[in-house]
Amino acid sequence: MIRPILTLTLALLMGACAAVPYAEPPVAEAPAEPPLPPDILARYRALQDGDEIIPAVPLENLSARNVRQEVDYWTDHPPGTIIVDPHDRFLYLVEPGNRALRYGVAVGEAGFQFTGEARIPYQRDWPRWTPTPNMIANRPDYAEYAGGVPGGIDNPLGARALYLHRDGRDTLYRIHGTPQPWTVGTAVSSGCIRLYNQDIIDLAARVRSGTRVVVLGPDERGLGTVPPEATRNTGVLD
């Protein structure tokens, strides 16, 4: 079971999380695995959200590992809790009966700097992104975005952003969408926790103000993915 997490390293020192704006995708390669079922592919088709049209996720950027799916998950945390496993690059929304809805995520540098518990007091649709002074100091090319990037299909925060607070303070840690679907399932150079835009819209619709979030540390990688009795004798996961 997930033990209490006692440490929290704020992303304040790193600056607010965001993907690299307008990064180019890698050269696409044909998928190496069997095609996904039509009902799974339908979750990632193009859709209209307000005034924005979200493109379908390209087939080469989808995999059975990263698509949204229900899985077995063993935890003491109550249904409705979000558990982020940045080192396994998954996000779990806990459901009753040792089940969870699992989302593949991309994890940026700031995403590895935060562990512990927080709450989501609010979320934003098509949020505006503004680099912090620290981000501009580290990346002078971000200076052109100092006035902020309006919400929209090319915004680094994607279609939704869930804002994490602790003790009434904004941690600057975000769970958000991305216009870069090829990054999902990978560790990337910047940002916090990114989901496909189709998935962050789905997750945001399930989240209420006050939702509790637990971010696992590196020694907790994979925690909850096997029954407790399977690890009782070893004490750790491989």
TrEMBL record:
GO terms for cellular component: extracellular region. GO terms for biological process: cell wall organization; peptidoglycan-protein cross-linking; regulation of cell shape. The active site is at H176, C192. Residues 1-23 form the signal peptide. Residues 80-216 form the L,D-TPase catalytic domain. Pfam families: YkuD. Pathway: Cell wall biogenesis; peptidoglycan biosynthesis. Gene3D superfamilies: L,D-transpeptidase catalytic domain-like (2.40.440.10). It comes from the Bacteria. GO terms for molecular function: glycosyltransferase activity; peptidoglycan L,D-transpeptidase activity. InterPro entries: LD-transpeptidase (IPR050979), LD_TPept_cat_dom (IPR005490), Transpep_catalytic_dom (IPR038063). Keywords: Cell shape, Cell wall biogenesis/degradation, Glycosyltransferase, Hydrolase, Peptidoglycan synthesis, Signal, Transferase. The keyword Ligase does not apply. Belongs to the YkuD family. This is L,D-TPase catalytic domain-containing protein. It comes from Pararhodobacter aggregans. The lineage of its organism: Bacteria, Pseudomonadati, Pseudomonadota, Alphaproteobacteria, Rhodobacterales.
